[in-house]
């Protein structure tokens, strides 16, 4: 990073050359295709979980076997940037219980989408923490660090694996996990310090080595995690370079053209024709605001109380008594039709009402015969000479015909699904 090597920037600016920093791409959507830092961090986060699983020596996922019950591994990811999110996804896919922390509250939804649990360090009484405007975490105040230390001290004694990814651009890595926290971890636990190249987030980390503490905790400080997946790293890095060359050759003629009006090209340019252009002007990054801590409780409608059995039976008996009374006072010729009508209503209600919604379409197809009988009966009533009977017969023919033609149309569409075009 040019911010960590001012002496190198000074030497480069003494020569008539142009220098670009591939790890200085701003965190904006348009620049993601050439963001080498994100590509390598993604690989490193995945590889950190692989290294932790190898050193852990036990299952990540919980199992219940004849030999006993195996609890799932508990993983804590410090920092939910690109590397942290990759580690969360990889550990979660292996079946571990994953928790993650980050000073940027806007990443909580991203952690949850990967199956992790976001642990907030911010005191709820103080409201929502400041949203990042650069896409990276920043140095926090002493009060935040004190609360952070208390949270990590509690989590360290409970988890099996800690993966730290906390970095601040242009500054040494913050010290997050102290020696006391390491000493409180269970024997056999693993810590992967992904910030080892910049000083480390863990007290006791040795750069490019894996050490074993007195209480049996293994601390891994490898700085070549991305290089341990060489084929994948080469593929992604090559793609980033191709996208960079496409950006620098807008005319597609092979002539490199630096446009300082483009915020991406301006941000990655360290030296231009022997003139130092570092540091670039800050780039504002829009981030999704964190969810409000005290959202208004949604209005919950009270569920409608179901009708009691006694009331339901009472209404049924009352309706049956009214029907039988009506049949008793009706003429003898009408009584038979009323009984048939009542039975048809009961049978039709239970037959049609209990049909699943997915079967309504084929049901329309097979009810053509019933609708056809209704049409025939209505046609026989038209010539009775009574105006009211003729009007009712006409309405019956109209409604039943709609069902008949609709049934044929549905049947045709159903059969067309099984015919070759």
Automatic annotation (TrEMBL):
Principal location class: membrane
Domain named Alanine dehydrogenase/pyridine nucleotide transhydrogenase NAD(H)-binding: residues: 53-221
An annotated GO BP: NADPH regeneration
UniProt membrane topology term: Multi-pass membrane protein
TM segment ranges: 75-98, 313-329, 335-352, 364-382, 388-410
InterPro entries assigned: Ala_DH/PNT_CS2 (IPR008143), AlaDH/PNT_N (IPR007886), AlaDH/PNT_NAD(H)-bd (IPR007698), NAD(P)-bd_dom_sf (IPR036291), NADP_transhyd_a (IPR026255), NADP_transhyd_a_C (IPR024605)
GO-annotated cellular components: plasma membrane
Family, as annotated: Belongs to the AlaDH/PNT family.
PANTHER family tied to this protein: NAD(P) TRANSHYDROGENASE, PROTON-TRANSLOCATING NAD(P)(+) TRANSHYDROGENASE
Role description: The transhydrogenation between NADH and NADP is coupled to respiration and ATP hydrolysis and functions as a proton pump across the membrane.
Protein name from the UniProt record: NAD(P) transhydrogenase subunit alpha
Species of provenance: Mycolicibacterium diernhoferi
């Amino acid at each position: 990073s040019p911010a960590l090597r001012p002496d190198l920037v000074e030497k480069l600016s003494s020569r008539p050359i142009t220098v670009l920093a591939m790890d200085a791409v701003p965190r904006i959507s348009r620049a993601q295709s050439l963001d080498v830092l994100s590509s390598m961090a993604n690989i490193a986060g995945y590889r950190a979980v692989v290294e932790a699983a190898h050193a852990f020596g036990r299952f990540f996922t919980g199992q219940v076997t004849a030999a006993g019950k195996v609890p799932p591994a508990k993983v804590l990811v410090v920092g939910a940037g690109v590397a942290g999110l990759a580690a969360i996804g990889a550990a979660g896919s292996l079946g571990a219980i994953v928790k993650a922390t980050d000073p940027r509250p806007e990443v909580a939804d991203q952690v949850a989408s990967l199956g992790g649990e976001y642990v907030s360090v911010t005191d709820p009484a103080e409201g929502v923490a400041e949203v990042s405007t650069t896409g990276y975490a920043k140095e926090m105040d002493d009060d935040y660090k004190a609360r952070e230390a208390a949270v990590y001290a509690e989590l360290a004694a409970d988890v099996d694996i800690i993966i730290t990814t906390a970095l601040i651009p242009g500054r040494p890595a913050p010290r997050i996990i102290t020696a006391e926290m390491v000493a409180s971890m269970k024997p056999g636990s693993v810590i992967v310090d992904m910030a080892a190249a910049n000083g480390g987030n863990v007290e006791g980390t040795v750069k490019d080595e894996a050490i074993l503490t007195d209480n049996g905790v293994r601390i891994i400080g490898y700085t070549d995690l991305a290089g341990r997946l060489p084929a994948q790293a080469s593929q992604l890095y090559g793609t980033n370079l191709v996208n960079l060359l496409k950006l620098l050759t807008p005319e597609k003629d092979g002539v490199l053209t630096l446009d300082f009006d483009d915020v991406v090209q301006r941000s990655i340019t360290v030296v231009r024709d022997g003139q130092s252009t570092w540091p670039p002007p800050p780039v504002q990054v829009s981030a999704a605001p964190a969810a409000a801590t005290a959202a208004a409780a949604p209005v919950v409608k009270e569920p409608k109380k179901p009708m009691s059995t006694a009331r339901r039976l009472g209404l049924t008996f009352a309706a049956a008594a009214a029907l039988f009374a009506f049949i008793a006072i009706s003429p003898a010729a009408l009584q038979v039709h009323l009984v048939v009508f009542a039975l048809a209503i009961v049978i039709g209600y239970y037959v049609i009402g209990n049909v699943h919604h997915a079967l309504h379409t084929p049901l329309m197809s097979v009810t053509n015969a019933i609708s056809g009988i209704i049409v025939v009966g209505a046609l026989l009533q038209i010539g009775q000479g009574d105006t009211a009977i003729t009007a009712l017969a006409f309405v019956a023919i109209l409604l039943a015909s709609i069902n008949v033609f609709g049934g044929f149309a549905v049947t045709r569409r159903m059969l067309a699904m099984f015919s070759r075009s």
